[in-house]
Amino acid sequence: MKRIAVLPEGSVSHEAIDFLFDGEALDLQHSKLISDIFRAVDSGSVQYSVIPIENTIEGSVSLHMDWLVNEVDIPMQAEWVYPSIQNVIGHGNEFVMGDGTYDFGKITKILSHPVAIPQCQNFIRQHSPDADLEGVNSTAEAVEIVKKNPGKGWVAIGTKLAAQKHGLDIMAERVTDHDNNYTRFVLIGHEPVSIPREPDHVKTSLLVTLPEDAPGALHQVLSAFAWRKLNLTRLESRPTKKRLGSYYFYIDVIETVDSVLLTAAMAEIEALNCQVRVLGSYPCYTYPSRK
Ligand SMILES: O=C(O)C(=O)C[C@]1(C(=O)O)C=C[C@@H](O)C=C1
Protein backbone atom coordinates (compact mmCIF):
# COMPACT_ATOMS: atom_id res chain seq x y z
CA MET A 1 0.00 0.00 0.00
CA LYS A 2 1.39 3.41 -0.95
CA ARG A 3 2.24 5.66 2.00
CA ILE A 4 1.34 9.27 1.19
CA ALA A 5 1.52 12.48 3.25
CA VAL A 6 -1.41 14.82 2.74
CA LEU A 7 -3.19 17.71 4.52
CA PRO A 8 -5.89 16.71 7.08
CA GLU A 9 -8.96 14.61 6.40
CA GLY A 10 -11.54 16.61 4.47
CA SER A 11 -9.02 19.00 2.87
CA VAL A 12 -9.20 19.57 -0.88
CA SER A 13 -5.83 17.77 -1.09
CA HIS A 14 -7.39 14.73 0.60
CA GLU A 15 -10.31 14.65 -1.86
CA ALA A 16 -7.85 15.10 -4.70
CA ILE A 17 -5.56 12.19 -3.78
CA ASP A 18 -8.54 9.83 -3.50
CA PHE A 19 -9.56 10.86 -7.02
CA LEU A 20 -6.06 10.26 -8.43
CA PHE A 21 -5.89 6.68 -7.17
CA ASP A 22 -9.50 5.95 -8.05
CA GLY A 23 -10.46 4.10 -4.88
CA GLU A 24 -7.15 2.22 -4.45
CA ALA A 25 -6.48 1.61 -0.74
CA LEU A 26 -3.82 4.09 0.41
CA ASP A 27 -1.96 4.54 3.67
CA LEU A 28 -2.54 8.28 4.13
CA GLN A 29 -0.51 10.14 6.75
CA HIS A 30 -2.41 13.34 7.45
CA SER A 31 -0.38 16.33 8.62
CA LYS A 32 -1.54 19.74 9.69
CA LEU A 33 1.33 21.71 8.16
CA ILE A 34 2.39 21.78 4.53
CA SER A 35 6.01 22.07 5.72
CA ASP A 36 5.68 18.66 7.42
CA ILE A 37 4.16 17.26 4.24
CA PHE A 38 7.15 18.47 2.22
CA ARG A 39 9.59 16.97 4.73
CA ALA A 40 7.77 13.65 5.13
CA VAL A 41 9.39 12.09 2.04
CA ASP A 42 12.91 12.96 3.14
CA SER A 43 12.33 11.71 6.67
CA GLY A 44 11.29 8.38 5.13
CA SER A 45 7.92 8.32 6.88
CA VAL A 46 6.12 8.23 3.49
CA GLN A 47 6.91 7.46 -0.16
CA TYR A 48 5.03 10.43 -1.62
CA SER A 49 3.60 13.80 -0.62
CA VAL A 50 0.66 15.73 -2.08
CA ILE A 51 1.43 19.37 -2.92
CA PRO A 52 -1.09 21.90 -4.36
CA ILE A 53 0.86 24.17 -6.73
CA GLU A 54 -1.60 26.23 -8.79
CA ASN A 55 -5.20 27.38 -8.69
CA THR A 56 -7.44 28.68 -11.47
CA ILE A 57 -8.47 31.79 -9.53
CA GLU A 58 -5.45 32.45 -7.36
CA GLY A 59 -2.66 31.35 -9.72
CA SER A 60 0.55 29.83 -8.37
CA VAL A 61 0.68 28.75 -4.76
CA SER A 62 3.99 30.61 -4.49
CA LEU A 63 4.87 29.35 -1.04
CA HIS A 64 4.67 25.75 -2.25
CA MET A 65 6.56 26.44 -5.48
CA ASP A 66 9.33 28.05 -3.43
CA TRP A 67 9.47 25.06 -1.10
CA LEU A 68 9.81 22.73 -4.08
CA VAL A 69 12.68 24.77 -5.45
CA ASN A 70 14.53 26.02 -2.37
CA GLU A 71 13.79 23.76 0.57
CA VAL A 72 13.66 20.22 -0.79
CA ASP A 73 15.13 18.28 -3.70
CA ILE A 74 12.36 15.78 -4.34
CA PRO A 75 11.22 15.14 -7.92
CA MET A 76 7.64 15.57 -9.08
CA GLN A 77 6.26 12.13 -10.03
CA ALA A 78 2.71 12.95 -11.18
CA GLU A 79 0.45 15.92 -11.71
CA TRP A 80 -3.32 16.12 -11.69
CA VAL A 81 -5.99 18.76 -11.80
CA TYR A 82 -8.94 18.54 -9.44
CA PRO A 83 -11.90 20.91 -8.76
CA SER A 84 -11.74 23.00 -5.59
CA ILE A 85 -15.42 23.12 -4.64
CA GLN A 86 -15.80 25.42 -1.64
CA ASN A 87 -18.80 25.69 0.67
CA VAL A 88 -19.76 27.86 3.66
CA ILE A 89 -19.81 25.55 6.68
CA GLY A 90 -20.92 26.33 10.21
CA HIS A 91 -23.27 25.72 13.14
CA GLY A 92 -26.41 26.51 11.09
CA ASN A 93 -28.58 27.15 14.18
CA GLU A 94 -26.55 30.31 14.92
CA PHE A 95 -27.64 31.92 11.66
CA VAL A 96 -31.00 30.39 10.74
CA MET A 97 -33.97 32.76 10.29
CA GLY A 98 -37.73 32.14 10.64
CA ASP A 99 -38.06 31.12 6.99
CA GLY A 100 -35.31 28.52 7.33
CA THR A 101 -32.69 30.48 5.34
CA TYR A 102 -29.42 31.70 6.82
CA ASP A 103 -28.57 35.28 7.78
CA PHE A 104 -25.00 35.54 6.48
CA GLY A 105 -24.79 39.09 7.88
CA LYS A 106 -24.51 37.50 11.33
CA ILE A 107 -21.20 35.88 10.44
CA THR A 108 -18.45 37.44 12.55
CA LYS A 109 -15.48 35.51 11.18
CA ILE A 110 -14.70 33.42 8.10
CA LEU A 111 -11.82 30.95 8.40
CA SER A 112 -10.12 29.06 5.60
CA HIS A 113 -6.83 28.36 3.84
CA PRO A 114 -5.33 31.66 2.56
CA VAL A 115 -5.63 30.35 -1.01
CA ALA A 116 -9.33 29.46 -0.58
CA ILE A 117 -10.53 32.81 0.85
CA PRO A 118 -9.78 34.85 -2.31
CA GLN A 119 -11.54 32.17 -4.39
CA CYS A 120 -14.81 33.26 -2.73
CA GLN A 121 -14.39 37.08 -2.71
CA ASN A 122 -17.72 37.84 -4.42
CA PHE A 123 -19.73 35.75 -1.98
CA ILE A 124 -17.98 37.30 1.01
CA ARG A 125 -18.33 40.89 -0.25
CA GLN A 126 -21.99 40.39 -1.08
CA HIS A 127 -23.17 38.44 1.97
CA SER A 128 -20.76 39.05 4.87
CA PRO A 129 -18.76 42.21 4.09
CA ASP A 130 -18.10 42.95 7.77
CA ALA A 131 -16.84 39.50 8.75
CA ASP A 132 -13.19 39.12 9.81
CA LEU A 133 -11.17 36.84 7.53
CA GLU A 134 -8.64 34.42 9.00
CA GLY A 135 -6.22 32.20 7.12
CA VAL A 136 -5.36 28.84 8.69
CA ASN A 137 -3.30 25.82 7.63
CA SER A 138 -5.99 24.13 5.52
CA THR A 139 -9.69 24.31 4.71
CA ALA A 140 -10.12 21.18 6.84
CA GLU A 141 -8.48 22.84 9.84
CA ALA A 142 -10.84 25.82 9.40
CA VAL A 143 -13.85 23.50 9.65
CA GLU A 144 -12.40 21.82 12.75
CA ILE A 145 -11.82 25.20 14.46
CA VAL A 146 -15.41 26.28 13.71
CA LYS A 147 -16.69 22.99 15.13
CA LYS A 148 -14.80 23.64 18.38
CA ASN A 149 -16.06 27.24 18.68
CA PRO A 150 -19.85 27.26 18.65
CA GLY A 151 -21.83 30.39 19.52
CA LYS A 152 -19.30 32.88 18.10
CA GLY A 153 -20.76 33.40 14.63
CA TRP A 154 -17.76 31.74 12.94
CA VAL A 155 -17.94 29.83 9.65
CA ALA A 156 -15.39 28.02 7.51
CA ILE A 157 -14.90 27.77 3.77
CA GLY A 158 -14.21 24.14 3.00
CA THR A 159 -15.28 20.84 1.50
CA LYS A 160 -18.45 18.82 2.02
CA LEU A 161 -16.24 15.99 3.20
CA ALA A 162 -14.97 18.14 6.10
CA ALA A 163 -18.54 19.28 6.97
CA GLN A 164 -19.61 15.64 7.15
CA LYS A 165 -16.61 14.61 9.24
CA HIS A 166 -17.31 17.33 11.84
CA GLY A 167 -21.13 17.12 11.67
CA LEU A 168 -21.55 20.78 10.66
CA ASP A 169 -24.10 22.37 8.30
CA ILE A 170 -23.42 23.36 4.73
CA MET A 171 -24.95 26.83 4.75
CA ALA A 172 -24.12 27.68 1.13
CA GLU A 173 -22.80 25.39 -1.59
CA ARG A 174 -20.25 26.12 -4.31
CA VAL A 175 -19.40 29.67 -3.32
CA THR A 176 -16.31 30.22 -5.48
CA ASP A 177 -16.37 33.27 -7.78
CA HIS A 178 -15.89 31.09 -10.85
CA ASP A 179 -17.34 27.65 -11.41
CA ASN A 180 -14.21 26.41 -13.11
CA ASN A 181 -12.16 26.52 -9.94
CA TYR A 182 -9.48 23.86 -10.28
CA THR A 183 -6.28 23.18 -8.40
CA ARG A 184 -3.18 21.59 -9.89
CA PHE A 185 -1.58 19.09 -7.53
CA VAL A 186 1.76 17.28 -7.77
CA LEU A 187 2.89 14.10 -6.11
CA ILE A 188 6.53 14.34 -5.04
CA GLY A 189 8.71 11.36 -4.15
CA HIS A 190 12.01 9.68 -4.99
CA GLU A 191 10.49 6.77 -6.96
CA PRO A 192 8.14 6.81 -9.97
CA VAL A 193 4.56 6.03 -9.02
CA SER A 194 2.12 3.58 -10.58
CA ILE A 195 -1.32 5.10 -11.21
CA PRO A 196 -4.17 2.87 -12.40
CA ARG A 197 -4.99 4.73 -15.65
CA GLU A 198 -3.46 6.25 -18.73
CA PRO A 199 -2.19 9.83 -18.41
CA ASP A 200 -3.43 12.62 -20.67
CA HIS A 201 0.16 13.55 -21.44
CA VAL A 202 3.66 13.62 -19.99
CA LYS A 203 5.24 16.85 -18.86
CA THR A 204 8.69 18.01 -17.76
CA SER A 205 9.17 20.86 -15.28
CA LEU A 206 12.38 22.86 -15.59
CA LEU A 207 13.91 25.61 -13.54
CA VAL A 208 16.05 27.87 -15.70
CA THR A 209 18.36 30.53 -14.29
CA LEU A 210 19.67 33.07 -16.80
CA PRO A 211 23.21 34.47 -16.77
CA GLU A 212 23.40 37.96 -15.25
CA ASP A 213 23.10 40.98 -17.52
CA ALA A 214 22.58 39.01 -20.72
CA PRO A 215 20.18 40.98 -22.93
CA GLY A 216 17.88 38.74 -24.93
CA ALA A 217 18.73 35.63 -22.90
CA LEU A 218 15.10 34.77 -22.13
CA HIS A 219 14.20 35.21 -25.79
CA GLN A 220 16.99 32.79 -26.75
CA VAL A 221 15.84 30.26 -24.14
CA LEU A 222 12.29 30.38 -25.47
CA SER A 223 13.59 30.06 -29.05
CA ALA A 224 15.27 26.76 -28.14
CA PHE A 225 11.77 25.38 -27.42
CA ALA A 226 9.95 27.29 -30.15
CA TRP A 227 11.89 26.19 -33.22
CA ARG A 228 11.63 22.56 -32.05
CA LYS A 229 7.86 23.08 -31.71
CA LEU A 230 8.00 22.03 -28.05
CA ASN A 231 4.75 22.98 -26.36
CA LEU A 232 5.22 25.10 -23.21
CA THR A 233 2.29 25.11 -20.79
CA ARG A 234 3.73 27.35 -18.08
CA LEU A 235 6.30 30.11 -17.90
CA GLU A 236 6.62 31.89 -14.64
CA SER A 237 9.31 33.97 -12.98
CA ARG A 238 10.04 33.80 -9.27
CA PRO A 239 12.59 35.76 -7.28
CA THR A 240 15.76 33.78 -6.55
CA LYS A 241 15.71 35.53 -3.13
CA LYS A 242 19.44 36.23 -3.53
CA ARG A 243 19.10 39.87 -4.58
CA LEU A 244 16.38 42.19 -5.81
CA GLY A 245 15.70 41.82 -9.54
CA SER A 246 17.17 38.31 -9.80
CA TYR A 247 14.75 35.65 -11.01
CA TYR A 248 14.56 32.05 -12.06
CA PHE A 249 12.11 30.85 -14.67
CA TYR A 250 9.82 27.96 -14.06
CA ILE A 251 9.01 26.27 -17.39
CA ASP A 252 6.68 23.32 -18.10
CA VAL A 253 7.07 21.46 -21.41
CA ILE A 254 4.79 18.77 -22.81
CA GLU A 255 7.58 16.24 -23.45
CA THR A 256 9.53 13.55 -21.58
CA VAL A 257 12.90 14.66 -20.29
CA ASP A 258 14.81 12.01 -22.25
CA SER A 259 13.21 12.81 -25.62
CA VAL A 260 15.68 13.78 -28.35
CA LEU A 261 14.03 17.18 -28.80
CA LEU A 262 13.96 18.19 -25.15
CA THR A 263 17.49 16.89 -24.50
CA ALA A 264 18.72 19.02 -27.40
CA ALA A 265 16.77 22.08 -26.23
CA MET A 266 18.25 21.78 -22.72
CA ALA A 267 21.77 21.43 -24.15
CA GLU A 268 21.21 24.56 -26.25
CA ILE A 269 19.99 26.48 -23.19
CA GLU A 270 22.98 25.36 -21.13
CA ALA A 271 25.26 26.48 -23.97
CA LEU A 272 23.80 29.96 -23.40
CA ASN A 273 25.32 29.81 -19.89
CA CYS A 274 21.93 29.22 -18.28
CA GLN A 275 21.54 26.77 -15.42
CA VAL A 276 18.88 24.13 -16.02
CA ARG A 277 17.44 22.01 -13.21
CA VAL A 278 14.89 19.28 -13.91
CA LEU A 279 12.18 19.37 -11.23
CA GLY A 280 10.47 16.27 -12.63
CA SER A 281 9.22 14.49 -15.71
CA TYR A 282 5.88 12.94 -15.01
CA PRO A 283 2.44 11.81 -16.22
CA CYS A 284 -0.46 14.30 -16.02
CA TYR A 285 -4.12 13.54 -15.36
CA THR A 286 -7.07 15.86 -15.81
CA TYR A 287 -10.35 15.65 -13.90
CA PRO A 288 -12.72 14.05 -14.76
CA SER A 289 -11.18 12.21 -17.69
CA ARG A 290 -10.57 8.59 -16.80
CA LYS A 291 -8.68 6.82 -19.56
O1 LIG B 1 -6.71 23.57 2.46
C1 LIG B 1 -6.93 22.65 1.67
O2 LIG B 1 -8.00 22.03 1.68
C2 LIG B 1 -5.91 22.27 0.70
O3 LIG B 1 -5.92 21.19 0.20
C3 LIG B 1 -4.85 23.32 0.34
C4 LIG B 1 -5.24 24.16 -0.85
C5 LIG B 1 -3.98 24.94 -1.38
O4 LIG B 1 -2.95 24.98 -0.74
O5 LIG B 1 -4.06 25.51 -2.46
C6 LIG B 1 -5.72 23.31 -1.95
C7 LIG B 1 -6.78 23.63 -2.71
C8 LIG B 1 -7.75 24.68 -2.30
O6 LIG B 1 -8.17 25.41 -3.39
C9 LIG B 1 -7.25 25.53 -1.22
C10 LIG B 1 -6.22 25.18 -0.45
Description:
The structure is a single chain. With 291 residues, this protein is an alpha/beta fold. It has three domains: 3-83 and 182-189, D-Maltodextrin-Binding Protein, domain 2; 87-172, D-Maltodextrin-Binding Protein, domain 2, CATH 3.40.190; 201-286, Alpha-Beta Plaits, CATH 3.30.70.260. It contains eight helices and 15 strands. Strands 1, 2, 3, 4, 5, 11, 12, 13, 14 and 15 form a ten-stranded mixed beta sheet that branches. The chain has a five-stranded mixed beta sheet with strand order 8-7-9-6-10. Strand 7, helix 4 (121-127) and strand 8 form a beta-alpha-beta unit. Helix 7 (217-226) packs antiparallel against helix 8. The longest helix is centred in the C-terminal third of the chain and has 12 residues, at 260-271. The two termini are 22 Å apart. The mean pLDDT is 94. Prephenic acid binds next to helix 1, strand 3 and helix 5. Residues 7, 11-13, 52, 55, 61, 84, 113, 115-116, 138-140, 183 line the site of prephenic acid. Pathway: Amino-acid biosynthesis; L-phenylalanine biosynthesis; phenylpyruvate from prephenate: step 1/1. The record marks 183 as: Essential for prephenate dehydratase activity.
